Amino acid sequence: MSKKQALDYLLNPSSIAIVGVSKDFTSISGKPLKNLLHHKFTGEIYPVNPKYDEIGGLTCYPSLLDIPGEVDVALIAVSSKRMMQILDQCKEKGVHHLVLFGSGFAEVGEEGAALQKEVLEKAKQSGIHILGPNCVGLLNVKKAIPMGFATSFETVAGFKSGPVGFASQSGAVGFSLFGMAQEENIGFSYVVNTGNQMDIHSIDCIEYMLEDVDTKVVAGYLEGIPDGELLIKLSSVSKENDKPVILLKSGRSELGQQAALSHTASLTGSDETFRAVAKQYGFIIVNDLDDMIDAMKIFSTGKRAKGNRVVTISNSGAAGIVMADYSEELGLEMVQLSERTAQKVKELIPSYGSALNPIDVTAQALKEQHILTETLELLIHDPDVDAIVFQTTFGGELGLKICEKIIEIDAKTTKPIIVTITGTEELTGEGRLALQNAGVPVYATSYKTMVALKHLVDFSLFSTRTKTEELGAYSNGNIGNPAGVWTEVKVKETLSKLGIRVPQGKVFANKEQLQQHKNELKYPVVCKVLSDEILHKTDAGGVKVNIKNGDELAAAYDGIMQAVTAYNPSARIEGVLAEEMIEGDAIELFVGIKDDPQFGSLIVCGLGGIFIEVLKDASIRKAPVNRLEAKEMLMELKGYPLLEGIRGSAKKDINKLIDTLVKVSEFAFHANGKIAEMDINPLWVFEDGYGVAALDGVIVWKEKDRVTQANR
Amino acid sequence: MSKKQALDYLLNPSSIAIVGVSKDFTSISGKPLKNLLHHKFTGEIYPVNPKYDEIGGLTCYPSLLDIPGEVDVALIAVSSKRMMQILDQCKEKGVHHLVLFGSGFAEVGEEGAALQKEVLEKAKQSGIHILGPNCVGLLNVKKAIPMGFATSFETVAGFKSGPVGFASQSGAVGFSLFGMAQEENIGFSYVVNTGNQMDIHSIDCIEYMLEDVDTKVVAGYLEGIPDGELLIKLSSVSKENDKPVILLKSGRSELGQQAALSHTASLTGSDETFRAVAKQYGFIIVNDLDDMIDAMKIFSTGKRAKGNRVVTISNSGAAGIVMADYSEELGLEMVQLSERTAQKVKELIPSYGSALNPIDVTAQALKEQHILTETLELLIHDPDVDAIVFQTTFGGELGLKICEKIIEIDAKTTKPIIVTITGTEELTGEGRLALQNAGVPVYATSYKTMVALKHLVDFSLFSTRTKTEELGAYSNGNIGNPAGVWTEVKVKETLSKLGIRVPQGKVFANKEQLQQHKNELKYPVVCKVLSDEILHKTDAGGVKVNIKNGDELAAAYDGIMQAVTAYNPSARIEGVLAEEMIEGDAIELFVGIKDDPQFGSLIVCGLGGIFIEVLKDASIRKAPVNRLEAKEMLMELKGYPLLEGIRGSAKKDINKLIDTLVKVSEFAFHANGKIAEMDINPLWVFEDGYGVAALDGVIVWKEKDRVTQANR
């Protein structure tokens, strides 16, 4: 059974056993039963504990094997030491879905990790799927089935069901966030805490929820990325099903990463890589719990923004200024209203208001509410406006009436209307609640509003973006099974096959060869030593430039041999490379491939010199990239203006550079994980129209093969 | 009477007249009376309106002049058109403190601006001080005297008085923020809305509150900076009185700035400059309303942090990871515990917890609360820990008990203890309230907690930092009354007097002089044309380098004259400068002075080349700066690693560079606002020990004086 199917059982059980149940309903092993009773679970509940005959009015069984009926899900609240025995019973009883609450596994060190491995193996053999261990449980919100001991299961208010599915590696963080979101009237479909995620992990849950009909918004709290490839695959499901995936990932700092290791034994990756790749694949990345709740709220509306053109309306000029500030900061466009719309707005509002965006309808709009409603009507019909933000500080009866008007208008349009009400709960609580109940997103500050809107715009644009799936130039290439290290000559051959310009050159294995063929070259040339034991050729005296003829080349050969032998007497020398000396007004970049443990081949590029050495300025994407993505990579670079040409310097061949990025990324993609590292450095980018040239390069293959290497 | 004294009257009136009062208590002119009655103002209230004999049980007077007693403050709710007449009455009655609610002044255009000016003039002549116009009023929280129509004055809960004084240019934003902060149990001394601030402005209010005994924390919401010099002066009051000033400034974006102009007719300055200068002078800058409330809360404790070394304690490993992430991001140090402390913590907590920072006391600490309290006790006595953050997701009875323990421990220490409770209001509300009532800052997310703590640390470090007030090298210099533009030769003379190295050189007014003295020079030299009509000397062919002897110099002279005459035939040529050719391994910087309308002379510096042209990377401070500030300026630069030396390149003479920044800034300071602009570019910084050299420079004085300039 797949993990997806297992999750379906886990979330929709007809019968639940609680193994190791306690009569103490305040304890971890007592709470799961208390919670099921509290929420009136309509299926069968089978408490299991040899110490009792009855708990909470239910028959208590000595062991799983004594239960008369079938058991869909077993909640296991026994010590880790008893796990192997319990697994045997599960197998015998035919229980295939377990939730392990207990700790004492991988999070406590080697012994625990060994036990965890043992448990997992046995479970696999027995066709059993496990959630946990070290987790607080899971929740089907729609059916009100709490399975576990999360504090938020004890709510007296009941659960609010709705479109958000949420998977959290951390139980404490996850269920607290869930509770806070519920208090803001955000409805959920499921919440799952994966804990040590020995079997079912957070990405599995995201996959399940992306395909679940009741879930329209998926959220994940991750400490590590248990399956980067699966996450990437889910990007297209997110897009096809038009369901955003909101991710909060902790363990970003170096110290945070250490803590993550000792906590749930997960490996957190580089935050930079995670953010770059997640953005590339349309995931919404949030920075903290507030941000997560705010994003859940705006996505719960199901509305999308056609673009980033925002109009803000307020009854206070100051608020308009603030919203303009945040829009600029976040990359939203405070769109200039068309003359037609501006004129009509002007006719509606008092003379001391502002008909320009930010629109100030003034406090008068509170009394004459048609001012606001008619302004809103104008904007929802204006095709140049993608989203409308209304901000007010008013509460009380008038404030509530305004909220009711907004709810009416919001129901008539697919255009997002987002409300900021800045004010006390005492004064504005009623209006806020009305909006929340009607599904109109409302925030307490303009900053929160604008950040949430930015998330909505990002996903809306992503979900309508066409990703070119076809692969280009190298798609028929067969790279075979390369191993070891490919140095300059071989890498240049490869690049040349990809259609990337490299200097034309010739390899001479010895002086005789050189003497024989030296006049076949087109001078001037550069001459370089070839040896995979001399990495810094220039330092070793292994490079001579501006060689004008055959005699100079012969002299250069001797000079190089003498220098490198002095530098490293034992180095194995394969010969020298004499190649075309390329000149021109160029900018130096590096383009590389890096193997990432979570996401596979990444393509990385950046400008040379201080940009990389001082500013550490580089762009990262998962390979392959299409032209649009390659362009975005370049535009992210701090040094991008140099490519565009500044202060009279000419524009560089960005077009050809984009081609190069695409080709290298496709090469890496087809290498299918075989590349450990690849580096083209420098890649010269000439003036627009003059292309690029790769002047040096190296590929390190994952497979080590000294023999092949020595023989190549 | 000073504006400070006027504010004292305005905030502490014994008698208040309400001119233009309305019987409609839901209207703007009715609410001020309703609010005074609602909060049971114990002084005299005099409603004024010829239409009524009585309002709300009080005698209503036809005009100010009919009031029997003295009037401390008059709240004016009449149309702007009647203002001049009201002023006459105020003068006659001896009313010296007015609050103008009405709009129709500078915010609506030229006519209104003219009226505002007229009103202000008459008020000044009559010894009258005005708050407003276009404001919603002010509030003395301690005495519960609301003067105006802010919605938050209508609270039924009453006001909570406390240490925070708050001035806001915007009424809507200001009083909403006040209301929200009160709901989080933050106590206030005063809240003042300054509106159009024709007379009393936000910085005046900050000044008043900094000197008020009841106010310990000052906050300001600013749209513009009405008096930059005063704000800077208040920095030392803030420090001496150990009262933080928290500022939220809107109008940061270009569009925001336009909106600010049409809103309250204020001029918002460059956000970059504001942030740099405010930081230099120890103001706490917040980014939105939430951030402001969070800062008010932590500063309300009155506690200070001795440094940035933080320890976090949590009952969840995940939360610790998150806090470590945020610490790193914000520049707080997750301090490594001493072996002694770590050992003791280890003995306290369960084996599966973490005794390393972030400390994980595990859920066990909920049941055995001594684990938490003893850990806290250890940390408050550890001199290497400056602040303690406790995070929990637990609520209910156990959660409340934990909060009570923390309150007990917090009361025993001056070390800040900050709490994060992530959870629903239903579950955690009680604990949260207990902490708030006890003055222990509590936040809903770790991010908010860490940001607030960073503000506390920043102010704590600022308030103990010794600012070198003495001025150095140029303090006896007398710069006289310079005017026009000083070009290269004169600027170099000036820099030389300041002790900044410049190339040794000689000016030749004509060929004859050159022939006569050419052998007095030490070769090689550089030769440059001198003309304030040729700005780009190199482009004009006006520079020759590497001149080795007198003959070459004579030839260079001819070449230059020919080239520049061709370039600009009418240019007035003052001669040529032949100067020492300085060489060495140097980095190019620029150092400049810029006159800022709000803060006076700013010193700006940055690296040349792509750092300024592509990255726009520059540091700004108000002049003068001391050595520490100059060092911080450099360390802020993205290119700073180049000065420290990277990849084997030598460290540069940072010490001498700091000297230079200090000297230039002091020069600007003594110039006392006379400099419009000054630019030293390039300033070469050599290897450590080899100093700096200014290779070119210009000063533009504010006073234009073509005659002086032509004659210099």
UniProtKB/TrEMBL annotation, chains A, B:
InterPro entries: Acyl-CoA_Synth/Transferase, ATP-grasp, ATP_grasp_subdomain_1, CoA-bd, Ligase_CoA_dom, NAD(P)-bd_dom_sf, Succ_CoA_lig_flav_dom, Succinyl-CoA_synth-like. Keywords: ATP-binding, Ligase, Nucleotide-binding. Residues 492-709 form the ATP-grasp domain. The keyword ATP-binding applies. Pfam families: ATP-grasp_5 (PF13549), CoA_binding_2 (PF13380), Ligase_CoA_2 (PF19045), Succ_CoA_lig (PF13607). The keyword Ligase applies. It comes from the Bacteria. GO terms for molecular function: acetate-CoA ligase (ADP-forming) activity; ATP binding; metal ion binding. In the N-terminal section; belongs to the acetate CoA ligase alpha subunit family. This is CoA-binding protein.
